[in-house]
Amino acid sequence: MTKRERATFVINTLKELYPEIPIPLDHKDPYTLLIAVLLSAQCTDVRVNKITPLLFAKADNPYDMIKLSVGEIKDIIRPCGLSPMKSKGIYGLSEILIAEHKGQVPQSFEALEALPSVGHKTASVVMSQAFGFPAFPVDTHIHRLMYRWNLSNGKNVMQTEKDAKAIFPMKEWNDLHLQIIWYGREYSAARAWDLENDIITKTIGRKSVLEEYYKKKSR
User: Fold this and answer.
1) 3-state secondary structure of 26
2) What is the pLDDT of residues 30-53, one digit of tens each?
3) pTM summary value
4) In this predicted model, what pLDDT tens digit does every residue of 159-172 receive, in sequence order?
5) Which one of the listed residues 60, 74, 121, 163 is annotated catalytic?
6) Is residue 29 among the annotated active site residues?
7) Is 121 a catalytic residue?
């Protein structure tokens, strides 16, 4: 298959598997999504979804958030890891949203990435999932699968994002990045990977990846 044919196979297979696409992080609006995505750095979505209800019960908007102290925020979000940095980021970005954006989450990459603790991936998730702007946030699952499927060289997430945007039609980006995440979790994990259940990689996978898999299986 050519690269374009592999990309088409990915799109069609994922549409069959995930006609309805749940968003992994529980939220009710752009602000709560922004906070949830920030908390998900080096933390599982499952854990974030257990912690955000505790935080949002006290503050689900920037005005209530700055009524809490950084220490109070840190104590609530501690199970998500990196709590000193994340709590300062949550408090700081809430202050900026009030001071510069009338308490609303801005709808631009530039404004989002100017907020404390908000990087390109977080901004991309918010732009895509909250505002419907075409974006292709790359997490570890997407980075791994784009390499396994021989659609990117695996050099870094920035290159993977560039390659994904080049090979997949823009109209597919917002659905596709979520579909790949779910597929990676369910069929093509980093560990305890069973290629027999991974129809996409089994069909279009990078030759070296498949060879390495079978080599390990034969040991």
Assistant:
1) coil
2) 999 999 999 999 999 999 999 999
3) 0.92
4) 999 999 999 999 99
5) 121
6) no
7) yes
